[in-house]
Amino acid sequence: MYTIRLKKGKEKAVRQLHPWVFSGAIDQVKGAPENGDIVMVTDNNNDFLAYGFFNDKSRVAVRLLEWNFETEINEDWWRKKITKAVKNRATLYNADTNTYRLIFSEADFIPGLIVDRYADFLSVQILTSGIERIKTIIIDELQKLLNPKGIFDRSDASARAHEGMDASSGVILSGIEPPQFVCVKENGIFYHVNIADGQKSGFYCDQRDNRRVVADHSGGKKILDCFSYSGGFSLNAFRAGAIEVVSVDSSALALDTLKRNIEINSFNNIPHRLIQSDVNKQLRVFRENNEKFDLIILDPPKYAPSRSALTKASRAYKDLNRLAMLLLNEGGLLATFSCSGAVDISMFKQILAWAALDAGKEVQFIEQYAQPSDHPVRSSFPEGEYLKGLLCRVT
Ligand code: SAH
User: Fold this and answer.
1) How far is the CA of 301 from the centre of ligand 1 (A)?
2) How much distance in Å is there from the Cα of 226 to the middle of ligand 1?
3) Residues 270 and 151 grouped into a single domain
4) What is the residue with the minimal CA distance to atom 6 of ligand 1?
5) Residue 188, in any domain of the structure
6) Which of 71, 289, 341, 363 is deepest in the core (most CB within 10 A)?
7) Whose CA is nearest to atom 11 of ligand 1?
8) d(CA 24, ligand 1 centre) in Å
9) Could you tell me if the CB of 362 is within 6 A of ligand 1?
10) Full-prediction pTM beyond 0.90?
11) Within this chain, do residues 211 and 269 fall inside the same structural domain, yes or no?
C-alpha cells in the first residue's frame, strides 16, 4: 500500500476524524498511487493516521475511510457500510413515504456515493474515482438489500469533472425498461419523478420534513411557492387548505411535472397558477401589479457553491428575500431556505436582517428548519450541513 505523509501540524484534522486531506497538507507521496487507490496516511513522523482514497486530480487529495490501523478495507467492509446506511433509514419507508436518500456520501462514511430511493427504483451518483472502482459491489449489495426494479446512474457530471472523471449516466441495472415517470409518495402526497431527465437525482427529498411543517401555516391562505420544481411546497399547501397557490420556476419540465402532480393528487379544483419565469423578474412583476400573498416560500438553488462566492451570494439572498418581504400582506409569513453550505444559519439570519432593514420591515424568526434525518451531519464533518431555513413573520 502507498503512503502519504502529511506536513508537520497537518495531522490535527485527521486525528479529529475529519474525512478530507487537502493536497496542500501533503508533505510526500511515497510511490505512485493511482487515482482511486487506497493509501495509508501518516503524520510527519510516519505514524499511522488513517486509510483513504487517493486522487491527485481533486482538491481533496485523500478522502478518509478508516482510522483503525488493524482494519482492512475490503469487500466486506464496503458491504457493511452500505448495509448500515440503508438499515438506518428503514423506518422512513412506510405507507405514506417511499422516497428518501439511502446513502449520503461522507455523512454515511462512503465518500463519493449518493443513492436515492424512488419507490422500487434507485438512483445512484458515483462522484469519486475510488467509488467508481467498487461500483459492482455497491450495485450487488443494493440489489440484495432492496431488490429494486431498476438502478439508474445519475452521476453529476460537474462533480465528476472536479475529480478528473468522465461524465456517466444511464441504466445500471434494470429488469424492465426505465419508465419515463416513477410515481413516488412522500408524506401521503404523490409525485411523478422523472429519474432520467429530472434535476439532480430527480427529486429534492431533503425538503421532505420542511414541506410538511411549512404547510401547517397554509390553511385559508394565498401562497406563493418560488423555485417550486415539481411542487413539493405547493402540493403540501394545497392539502393543508390553501385557498390559492401560485408556483414559479424557470424550468418548463419542472412545471410540466408539477401540473401532472396536481392532477394525480386531485388538487385541480383549488385555484392555482403555474408561472414559468425567473423568480427575480416575476417578484418585480407582482410588485408592479400590487399583488400580495400571505405565505411566500423561497427555495432557491445553491447561490454559494464555495466560500469564494459568499459575497455575491449574500447579496443575491438579500435581494431575493427583500423583494419577497415587500409582497407579503401585513403579518405575512416568509419561509426562506438556503442550501449553500458556506452560508451558516447565523449568517443567514444576518442576511435576512439586512433584507428586512432594506425593505423597511420587522422580522420575527418563528421557526427554524434543517435537513432531514436521511441527510445526517457527521460531528467531525460540519461541511455536510448545508440546508437551513427560517420561517419569518414580517410586519
Ligand atoms: N422547492 C423545490 C426544489 C427547488 S430546487 C422542491 O420542493 O422540490 C430549485 C429550483 O429552482 C429548480 O426547479 C430550478 O429549475 C429553479 N430555478 C433555478 N433558478 C431559477 C430562477 N432564477 N428563477 C426561477 N426558478 C429557478
Assistant:
1) 6
2) 7
3) no
4) 232
5) no
6) 363
7) 227
8) 36
9) no
10) yes
11) yes
Which strand (E) or helix (H) includes residue 79? helix 75-88
Q: Is the CB of 232 under 6 A from ligand 1?
A: yes
Q: Which of 353, 365, 298, 369 is nearest to 327 (CA)?
A: 298
Q: Which helix (H) or strand (E) is 177 found in, with range?
A: none
Q: What is the pLDDT along the chain (395 residues), one digit of tens a residue?
A: 999 999 999 999 999 999 999 999 999 999 999 999 999 999 999 999 999 999 999 999 999 999 999 999 999 999 999 999 999 999 999 999 999 999 999 999 999 999 999 999 999 999 999 999 999 999 999 999 999 998 888 887 777 888 788 877 777 776 666 677 899 999 999 999 988 765 555 799 999 999 999 999 999 999 999 999 999 999 999 999 999 999 999 999 999 999 999 999 999 999 999 999 999 999 999 999 999 999 999 999 999 988 899 999 999 999 999 999 999 999 999 999 999 999 999 999 999 999 999 999 999 999 999 999 999 999 999 999 999 999 999 99
How far does the centroid of ligand 1 lie from the alpha carbon of residue 56, in Å? 34
Q: Do 386 and 249 reside in the same domain of the chain?
A: yes
Query: Do 138 and 253 fall into the same domain?
Result: no
Q: Is the CB of 202 under 6 A from ligand 1?
A: no
349 is written with which cell numbers?
439570519
Q: Residue 373: CB within 6 Å of ligand 1?
A: no
| Candidate of 249, 275, 369 to mutate for ligand 1, largest count of ligand atoms within 8 Å of Cβ | 249
- Strands, E, within the chain: which ranges? 3-6, 20-22, 26-30, 38-42, 48-54, 60-66, 99-104, 113-118, 121-126, 150-153, 170-174, 182-186, 189-193, 222-226, 244-249, 272-276, 293-298, 328-338, 363-370, 388-394
In a domain, 197, yes or no: no
User: Range of 39's domain?
Assistant: 3-66
Check pocket membership of 143 for ligand 1, CB cut-off 6 A: no
Q: How many domains does the chain have?
A: 3
One-letter identity of residue 64: L
